[in-house]
Amino acid sequence: MSTKPFFPCAGARALHAPTRRDFIYGLGASLGSVAFSALLAEEAKQLSTNTQAHFPGAKAKNVIFLMMEGGPSHIDTFDPKPKLEKLHLQEFTRDGKQKSAMETGKRYYVQSPFKFIKAGQSGADMADNWTHLAKVADDLCFFRGCTVDSVNHPTAMYQMNCGNRFGGDPGLGAWVNYGLGSSNRNLPGFVVLPEVSYPQGGAANWSNGYLPANFQGTPLRAKGSPILDLTPPAGVTKDQQRKNLDLMAKLNAAHAGQHPGHDELSARMNNYELAFRMQMQVPETLDLSKEDAKTKELYGIGKDSTDSFGRKCLLARKLIEKGVRFVQLYKGSWDSHDYIERAHGNLVRGVDQPIAALITDLKQRGLLESTLIVWCGEFGRTPDNGVRGGIAYGRDHNANAMTMWLAGGGCNAGHTIGATDELGMAAVEGKAHVRDFHVTLLRLLGLDDNKLTYYHAGRFKQLSQFGGTAIKKLIA
Fold this sequence. Notes:
The chain is an alpha/beta fold.
């Protein structure tokens, strides 16, 4: 079945220009026609976005998504639970009597090893090891009511990133670019900054799914050259590359004309053209050496604990400046079943300064208002843990309670929305499913989840799977 999109309403049609395949077949196989069609498609998308957005007053134009893979503990970061101090290392049994964990060898409650402070004029709750983020607390909107469906890492990652815990669906960045288009034809619209080891679930976390292949995320390598083969081989000039691409376009367009039901070839041709243009802009964009010393120091570049993530955050700012629509950064190893003080302590130390610097830098440049920043994991953690070879102060997976926060992009900064119970086991106020968070993210970008659809496998599909409700309190 063809995956050519259908439009259920005028609002959806206004956002989506004719497909690249339509342009290719309409213009024929003349030299350079593929590159020309790509330009026209992007220009049409930009024009429709500027005049026909679902919610024209939306402030967010770009997204920086900070994905803390492994499930950060809300109880040890932004959702303090004083009652756990009284229950520390005690187990609740069915008869209501408490026993020491050393007596039972089963499950026991674990207090947070971190002290909490009230940060900023908003009085936001933060563990006191977030020393840098505390300085920008009033720019943050905390949401404690989010719930998901799985405590399995890969399926929970898929649900947070793609809306479907079984994988195969488009990633958040793919949906956003499908709706808004790219504002820079020389760079991918959806860029991913993973670690050396990909997150659980792999590249499917930033897949195009059933959307056209050109909407997939472009991962940049964590070590070495961010993009392989970006520089032409020795002795190959730009003119030679251009002639080769034109010949390839002519041959591929003829082949595509014989197979009109497949968009993979047109996406590949577009990628060749994009790669050619990227050779001119990407090296300058990825080069951090020209940033001044003060900026590098702000992000913690050059310090062992913060250099890696600091570079990612600075690069995210540069990509947003260049018009990349959606940038996703990964920081793994938050799966702290054991020794949470040491594990979370090291992780917070590595991301605290870079994230605060990103917010500060965007704000100084007048970009925070139009850039939505999201910080979250795939689920939260439990207030209790099992004994593993003795007392190990960690936590297990929890799909019923987690904390995420937003900054910029028209979010309700300076507020904490929702609450969990006194132990942090479940959301009890402002409770909302992750699909509602996805609907809210799109709303902040001016997109309506019910109109941003794609016809596939016999029905119109959307990010939320079957609809959701925007969490209005998260929107200023």
